[in-house]
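Tutorial handout. Part one gives the primary structure; part two gives the three-dimensional structure as tokens.
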Amino acid sequence: MVTKAELMDYAPVKGCMVIRPQGYALWEAVQEGLDRRFKATGHENAYFPLFIPESFLRREAEHFEGFTPQVAWVTRGGGEDLAEPLAVRPTSESIIGPMYARWVKSYRDLPVLINQWCNVVRWEKATRPFLRTSEFLWQEGHTCHRTEEEAEAETLTILEIYRDFVESTLAIPVVPGLKSESEKFAGALRTYSIEALMSDGRALQAGTCHNLGQHFAKVYDIQYLDSDGQLKYVWQTSWGVSTRLLGAVVMVHGDDRGLVLPPRLAPTQVVIVPIPSDKEAQLVARGLAELWSALGRAEVWGRPVRFKVDDRTEYTPGWKYNEWEMRGVPLRLEVGPRDVKSGQVVAVRRDTGEKTALAATDPGTLARAVSDILEKIQDNLYERARRFREANTHEASTLEDIARFMESGRGFVRTPWCGEAGCEARIKEETGATLRCLPLVGDWAESTRGGAGAEPGGRPEVERARGRCAVCGADARYLAYFARAY
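Part two.
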């Protein structure tokens, strides 16, 4: 699907992909939507080097061990052996930490709220386009704060930004939650994530936010002189999403005919396909010009509707219909001689295939009708994905139940868990399912409303479970989401 729709092609280097213009336009929409939200909460963009000295990585043992199997190394440069091997960035904590140690000296220098858009390399053994590749694009935020409360507020601020963007723009429902100790980021105090369910029943970690505590600050000696005259270590966070979000869009919304793109994300929201007529070519041209004028004034979500006209003469209308359906354009408008004579255009929705005749005599009325349909498509895609997730979320009270759902069913399994790593490991060993998250409950985003750096006065609450752990039978502490995942 992604190759036929020209989102990507396979690169000569194993595990890498070429993102073609159609695919990169989707990534640009992700960048624009998130970058705007980041900057609205006080964050700025910067750029840090691709190459990281081995000694920088080794300064944090747990972090180094966590990434060693996936790190690509540069050992020669300019025909000479390097005095010290350089890691090709798998993530940037170990290069950003030393820089922050230079920049942060006083409480007046805090908070540091920096994000970068870049590529990273993780040498994967098994790769899938967009979902897991050896090189991929992402954004990674790295921030410093005076207190743990400020760092926690920052972490939840970004988690809410991710949740809102993925649900409102990508139309993908997610479960925000806390990662278990075994699943958290190496070196982090706490890791939060948003978990999505793909149409094949597997889970996908769509974004992560890490409260790093003071661990990396102590490793890289990031200290500041506080207002009380005491020298203190900063509290840090890091967070990121990647091009796997595009894979999520493909897998959640796509069907047997190709892509189905949410209108908020789609580079082209409306395609106009004229139906040619040798005898009435001027009539069709007039109808096309009127339609162009109407859409030129149409707005949706406060922005101009993005549309194009497919007036290629070398292809039939039927071929074009199939082509634009495969590419996932949300709405198709057909205009032929009979339509112009009737004062209408035919609108065809990509999500449902529904055809509707829209009055075209008044440009304003037509513009509003098109905008209304796009909004309905966006809402329908989200609701359809939400219903799928709910239908494929199962309750399990025993290990046998979990195994049965993993083998014969699909989706999330919610199960009581005692909190012990041994029980979590046994579920993974016997069912192939990993603990995706401990879902957050209540108004956990309340602490984010003061913006980055605000003090929330506490950590978010995770969902508690009644009854017994599905594995050991001890009193359960949490209700955990398990699933097989990408």
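Part three, for discussion. Residues 61 and 187 are 9 Å apart (CA to CA). The first helix runs from residue 21 to 40.
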